[in-house]
């Protein structure tokens, strides 16, 4: 049997950059590479063409009475730019100090392939019916995934959806993610004049869209982090004391966090810890802002237009549509006189929190604990993985987020890496989970 | 004698674009073209090389006891871009409906050449000693002009400095400008993080430079136009009731003003009219603002950096240096915690107001009145012409701003034009002024 690590290196050498049309053949090559591995492992595989990149779907039925697990992941990767900052070439996977350096090593080829390798190793001893849904468009917004899921609800039916595309809380600390924030994203375009005018000749008597944008942003969120949209907090479920106590036990180092992002302060809502503010409190952040002269030096112009884009991260039970409505109504209320405003709604996503005491989560916790030899911690994530809510809704199945990566894996950045030990233990954890799940679902405990 | 209009068309055909290095020879050609015209008119001319484009200096001494007038102007022009918006080519001067279309027609070739043509027509009957200082770098910030003026104070000595590089208040309405606003220009650069971070993973716990910029801008000026920098208004000289009454008699049409700039409102300090707000009240306008993602669609990033540039238009007796100091101190006071700030000072300029009842101004008023057949109005301008304060300081001479252009001349824009009638009457007014000035300076009146 071929060493899974060498197989992973082969997988990582394929530059399956979904965003770059010149890599279209490479993306397809990666899909067929997976097809070959899964076929070798005895799966019935289909490489499903889409209007974009193909979806790899595979299944192996072992026993109609056994539970069914659907593993979701993606085989496409981020573009490797800026190339000059890589210490080793992004598509020449290199192992150094126990770390596998390559684009896609952690996001998500290494993590999804841990499950494929587990299935290969279990071979005929597979204790569950296993399905793989591995897409090639995650890094470009998964345009074809939800339509595929909706169309193939029955075929994809599963007792548990298993996803490994997230980080562990700390190196060596097995982690299950049980919550994700949702998202509402709006863009505001303001216009106060038909054209830019001279700030000398007109200053004092005409609207200035840059100021209007600033006034509005200042009224959206105050410097203490409080969001001033009426009704914004109405549906926020407070964190239970037990949950807060659980987070307090996590090895979180505020100084290390500040050093990591290069921040001198960690401003935010008073009375909430940093983890709670990132995981369980809704936020509003301007992501882009522009008006007037953008070049070097000075130009004396009153800008006719301004724009700002902002994302709101949502928590249960906030509804992205309702929040976007509230935000838009407030924007219209605070719009200063003399400006035309256009509000554009970009993508959104539902917040998700799943119980940590469900049988699949408990099985996953034990599976990780056996692999790493440490008690599994339960964390939330501040980001959004919209497909999680989609799976829960469309397949009516619980989702287990079992991350093998690390925050320090340089996702979407140069020198992406994946610790070889996490790959090995990921395979082990995957096998453990498939073995333990049937027992937990039956109400047993290992 | 050659028709001055045909000579002007020849002058306008030279693409003397000072900002574009590929036009360096053309700029020089325009200088020599002026040299030839002024030499033909009996002037001693020098084309003075600088590190940039040459300065044309000419003088004609008629009588040691006669007053001396220094005419300042510029022979360089703005770049013609965007070319596709010109209805006739910018450097193929075209007369249509009594208007001369060409880059530089109004700014400033047509206006300065009116004075050259006047001197040519007066020939040996020149009633004053006349000097011309015509630079080729006005559109690139006049880097060599003030050093030249300082170095040649004696040679440039004059009883009056005459400048035609400004608009009349309305078509057919002879106008003298007796006030200009000053300028202080600052740029603020903020940084809250070492790098952009994901708005999901970090939102709620890290600084966001876009918000900091917005909060600060919102604290610089409120939506009513009030500037909140402590001490900002301390040195502002209020407008006298007579001056305000004089402006009230000007044919100003607020609806036409709004239509011209495409504004639905004319926000500004309550209790002040639009002209007073543009001419005699200080202002603060953000000229450029940027942070984070500038592209189409959405990107979920918390920007590490933000910048904003703002200009403050100043009125007597505000001092640009003092105002910049006050602004910088206030910026440091309102800077939110967790951000590093850099403040860059760009160019400034002193505000200027000259008496309207001085002999040169009265001579100019009569000169214009005789040419246009209407009473001359006195106006201020909202913009800044820093060289005016420099002339007043270095040459200790009064400055007369006798504009022949119109607000609608499309300065710095496609389809720049100059009304042929204003060129003709400008020549006449120039001759009138040179004739009337000696009498007014002697205390007489025509």
TrEMBL record, chains A, B:
GO process annotations (BP): proteolysis
Keyword terms: Hydrolase, Metal-binding, Protease
Every Peptidase M20 dimerisation domain range: 178-337
Cross-referenced InterPro entries: Cyt/Met_Dipeptidase, Peptidase_M20, Peptidase_M20_dimer
Molecular function per GO: metal ion binding; peptidase activity
Protein's name according to its UniProt entry: Peptidase M20
Lineage, broadest ranks: Bacteria, Thermotogati, Deinococcota, Deinococci, Thermales
């Amino acid at each position: 049997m071929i060493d899974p690590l060498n197989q992973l290196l082969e997988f990582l050498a394929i530059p399956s950059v979904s965003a770059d049309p010149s890599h279209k053949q490479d993306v397809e090559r990666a899909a067929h590479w997976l097809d070959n591995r899964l076929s070798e492992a005895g799966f019935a595989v289909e490489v499903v063409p889409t209007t974009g990149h193909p979806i790899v779907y595979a299944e192996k039925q072992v026993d109609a009475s056994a539970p069914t697990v659907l593993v979701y992941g993606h085989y496409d990767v981020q573009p490797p730019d800026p190339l000059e900052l890589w210490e080793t070439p992004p598509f020449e996977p290199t192992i150094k100090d126990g770390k596998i350096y390559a684009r896609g090593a952690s996001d998500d080829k290494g993590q999804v392939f841990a499950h494929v390798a587990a299935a290969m190793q279990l071979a005929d001893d597979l204790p569950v019916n296993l399905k793989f849904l591995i897409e090639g468009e995650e890094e470009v917004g998964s345009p074809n995934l939800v339509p595929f899921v909706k169309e193939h609800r029955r075929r994809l039916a599963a007792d548990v959806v298993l996803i490994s595309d997230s980080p562990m809380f700390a190196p060596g600390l097995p982690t299950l993610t049980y919550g994700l924030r949702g998202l509402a994203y709006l863009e505001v375009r303001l216009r106060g004049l038909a054209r830019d005018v001279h700030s000398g000749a007109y200053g004092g008597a005409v609207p200035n869209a840059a100021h209007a944008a600033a006034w509005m942003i200042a009224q959206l969120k105050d410097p203490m982090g409080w969001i001033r949209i009426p009704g914004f907090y109405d549906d926020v479920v407070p964190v239970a004391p037990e949950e807060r106590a659980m987070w307090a036990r996590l090895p979180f180092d505020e100084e290390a966090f500040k050093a990591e992002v290069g921040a001198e302060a960690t401003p935010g809502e008073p009375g909430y810890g940093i983890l709670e503010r990132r995981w369980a409190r809704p936020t509003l952040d301007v992501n882009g802002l522009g008006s007037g002269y953008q070049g070097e030096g000075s130009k004396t112009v009153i800008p006719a237009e301004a724009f700002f884009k902002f994302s709101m991260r949502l928590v249960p039970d906030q509804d992205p549509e309702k929040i976007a409505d509230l935000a838009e109504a407030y924007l219209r209320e605070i719009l200063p006189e003399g400006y035309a405003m256009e509000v554009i709604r970009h993508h959104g996503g539902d917040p998700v929190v799943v119980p940590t005491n469900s049988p699949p989560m408990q099985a996953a916790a034990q599976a990780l604990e056996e692999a790493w030899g440490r008690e599994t911690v339960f964390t939330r994530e501040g980001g959004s993985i919209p497909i999680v809510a989609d799976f829960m809704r469309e397949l009516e199945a619980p989702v287990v987020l079992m991350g093998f990566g690390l925050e320090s894996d340089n996702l979407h950045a140069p020198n992406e890496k994946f610790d070889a030990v996490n790959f090995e233990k990921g395979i082990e954890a995957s096998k453990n989970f498939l073995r333990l799940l049937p027992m937990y679902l039956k109400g047993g405990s290992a």
